[in-house]
Amino acid sequence: MKAIPVPAIAGLFLFQPTPHRDERGFFSRTFDADVARSVGIDPDAFLQDSVSRSVRGVVRAMHLRSGAGESKLVRCSFGEVFDVVVDLRPDSPTFRAVETFRLSGDTQVSIYIPAGCAHGFQALSDIADVSYRIDRVHNPDEDVSIAYNDPELAIPWPLPPTLMSERDKTAPSLAEALQT
Question: CDD domains this protein is in (predicted)?
Answer without folding.
Answer: cupin_RmlC
